[in-house]
Amino acid sequence: MKIVVCIKQVPDTKGGVKFNPDGTLNRTAMLAIMNPDDKAGLEAALRIKDETGAEVTVVTMGIPKAEDVLREAMAMGADKAILVTDRVLGGADTWATSTTIAGALRNIDYDLIITGRQAIDGDTAQVGPQIAEHLGIPVISYAEDIKIDGDSVIVKRQYEDRYHELKAKMPCLVTALSELNVPRYMTPGGIFDAYDEKEVTVWGRDNLKDVDDSDLGLKGSPTKIAKASDKVRKGAGEKVTLDPSESVEYIMGKLKEKHVI
Ligand SMILES: Cc1cc2nc3c(=O)[nH]c(=O)nc-3n(C[C@H](O)[C@H](O)[C@H](O)COP(=O)(O)OP(=O)(O)OC[C@H]3O[C@@H](n4cnc5c(N)ncnc54)[C@H](O)[C@@H]3O)c2cc1C
After folding, report:
1. How far apart are the CA of 122 and the centre of ligand 1, in A?
2. 163, β-bridge pairs
3. Residue-level pLDDT at 23
4. CATH number of the 2-215 domain
5. pTM, full prediction
6. Other beta carbons less than 10 A from residue 217's beta carbon
7. Domain residues of the chain, as ranges?
8. Which of 203, 187, 200 is nearest to 70 (CA)?
């Protein structure tokens, strides 16, 4: 069985988000990490590998420095890594990103593709389902549990106030939530292998299969950022001290005043 995990290198937003004067993300001012949902997706793939002996390949599209997250993934236990990087891919929106990743995946065999549900920087949750659409395979999103059952995958899918259990024949794509599991740490042996023994395969535009230039990079991105601005902060609100019966009357009056009721 062959599993591909798509991993995005994202800025760590824990220490606060830093912006350039034009409102775009200042990526160089923030630490780069493996997107949390993708790390959970990788852990799910590694647990399937532990049980079945599956081969796990990690793929990222990004700048050359994105190789760091691939090495980290191999230190956790991934077998192979592919970095898709090329100047012509820069400025890609979700359409151009998913077109690129699908173009790379057409070169390799896979039974199961796992992506994160959402990247913590772009936050669109579009790339996983778009890759599935490009490749013509089913997608199950919001996975909180993934099990292999013969030639199918069974997924516990988070759905507002309940769960759905869905089964799909492989090949298929599953998008993972960070609640899926607690990812393992890198092992000392794994770190040694990942940095000294294993290779990262590097592909450029010419390695993308069945992809048109007009769908790549900034030129191939139908989404344009028209404006970036800070959120207007909510006010402190209004504090009143009343007894319970007066409070109800007061709140009802406010709701009527604002046409909420
Ligand atoms: C006009 C325009 C220009 C942009 N230019 C840039 C730019 O130059 N550099 C930049 O970093 N962003 C750029 N962006 C943002 C870019 O569109 C998104 O970062 C990217 O398309 C992924 O979308 P997302 O972060 O919302 O991912 P989501 O859809 O939220 O991600 C879901 C999952 O898809 C997978 N995934 C997403 N992206 C990748 C990836 N690159 N490699 C592997 N797996 C991935 C991961 O598993 C991830 O968890 C640009 C956006 C626009 C609109």
Report:
1. 6
2. 158
3. 66
4. 3.40.50.620
5. 0.88
6. 21
7. 2-215
8. 200
